Amino acid sequence: MTVRNRGALAAMAVGAAALTVAVLVACGSQPAEDVGAEQAADLASATPSPTAGGPSVPVTRGELPSGAETVPPTRLVIPAIDVTATVNAVGINQKTDEFEVPPSVDQIGWYRYGPGLEADTGSVVIAGHVDSATQGKGAFWRLRDLDQGDTLTATGSDGKERRYRVVAREEYQKTKIPLERYFARDGKPRLTLITCGGPFDAEARRYRDNIVVTAVPA
Q1: What is the pLDDT of residues 11-40, one digit of tens each?
Q2: I need a labelling partner for 146 at 20 to 30 A (CA). Which of 2, 32, 53, 210 fits?
Q3: Distance of CA 105 to the CA centre of its chain
Q4: Catalytic one among 196, 211, 213, 215?
Q5: Does 13 fall in a domain?
Q6: Is 15 among the catalytic positions?
Q7: How far is CA 150 from CA 38, 58, 78, 81, 94, in A?
Q8: Residue 162: active-site member
Q9: How much is the pTM?
């Protein structure tokens, strides 16, 4: 899974232990049509967060929204697609400039340079592999099947369960995903789940697109 900086955005790589911030893990089947794109856009701030000339997706810890101590997600349950997965805090691999994700495809990663579950603004990003040539289907294998109204529960390090409702599911070519929207620290509170989709490029050994699911507190 890969999410790569535009200029300096972090990255996520498919099938490896990394996830690039513009190219995330995927599955080959095409999802249904996009739904809720306008709702997802409306959740973001009208103007991007100031980055002082830096990347839209921070690669080192910066100032988070003021308030309580950050609460990382530790478990994600999505009944509609039979997901119960451990969530690990992930950062940037300094050698590869990639956003690292757990090597086991049944686990997923929370972007720890963004907001935690306690934040009342911004996008909490969780991403993971869909499949692996050696491990088979990953936790987000069926992420593309989620639809508006589906619910999920994220449990934080504080033991509190927080329920969310899906409002949007979108597919982008990896070079066109609006990273500043999905990794924003401002705007309304939301949970952003990312994996890959679209056709598989056998030569590059990665999928062409990203699947992005947006959920709001229920």
Answers
A1: 333 333 344 443 333 344 455 689 999 999
A2: 2
A3: 14
A4: 196
A5: no
A6: no
A7: 18, 30, 8, 10, 37
A8: no
A9: 0.80
